[in-house]
């Protein structure tokens, strides 16, 4: 059994995270992402 913590952001990391989640050999201990940041002229969260 492999215990892992996943570090990733947004759409790029989603397929990888899904694959790790589906694998029986991997036990995810945690997931670390960056918080949403304000964007655009009015600095609104997306």
What keywords describe this structure?
alpha+beta; 46 residues
Q: What does it look like?
A:
The chain is of the alpha+beta class. The protein has a domain of 31 residues. Helix content is 28%, strand content 28%. It is built from one helix and two strands, in the order βαβ. The chain has a two-stranded parallel ribbon with strand order 1-2. Helix 1 links the parallel strand 1 and strand 2. The radius of gyration is 14 Å and the shape is elongated. The N and C termini lie far apart (37 Å). 0% of the residues are buried. The model has no long low-confidence stretch (mean pLDDT 89).
- Give me the strand/helix succession: EHE
- What fraction of residues sit in β-strands? 25-35%
Helix vs. strand class: alpha+beta
DSSP, total strands: 2
Low-confidence blocks of residues: none
Largest sheet: 2 strands, parallel
Tally of DSSP helical segments: 1
Radius of gyration, whole Å: 14 Å
Instruction: Estimate the global geometry from the Cα principal axes.
Output: elongated
Mean pLDDT: 89
Output the strand order for the largest sheet.
1-2
How far apart the termini lie comes to 37 Å
Residues in helices, as a percent range:
25-40%
